[in-house]
Task: structure prediction
Amino acid sequence: MQRKIYHFGDQLYLAEYVVALDAEANYRCWLDPETQKGYNYKVDFTLEEFIASPGRNRFRAVIMRKSDDTPIGVVSLSPEGCLPDLAIMLYPGFRGMGYGTQAFQLALEYCFKAFEFPAIYAGCYESNQISMKMLSGCGFVPHPEGNCNETHYLDGTPIVQLDFVKYRP
Result:
């Protein structure tokens, strides 16, 4: 099956998310405890339920490694009617290699080109130093008025999701 290609980088490219090709790996990533921690979300649905729930994102793409066309994660942009919030999920085994920053930068470039947003937002929890470093490396700056107080998905303790913004270049 031929995928639509959205944007090329040096080591990665963004391609069309195809449920038949990508849902199972995406679902397995959601089952990963580190993913759940990063999203403050406990997964309690089956693969079949995951596949049956329609994606509402404005934009969703699979992150592909150019050297071998391996899918290594997913980027997505929040649904219509919300502030444009960009999210990333790297599959276990591809984390800590610098792919996140490259993929997020590709997604930013694509979203600023494809949509007419004056700014794009992103968030991470205050304990997630790796995501904060990635956001900073992509040119995001803190946007404290967008911070959200939440409760931890496992123990109910208070946590803060920090908000960041990048303005159109």
User: Anything to note?
Assistant: Helices lie at 19-31, 33-39, 47-52, 99-114, 129-137. The chain has five helices and nine strands. Residues 97 and 145 are 32 Å apart (CA to CA).
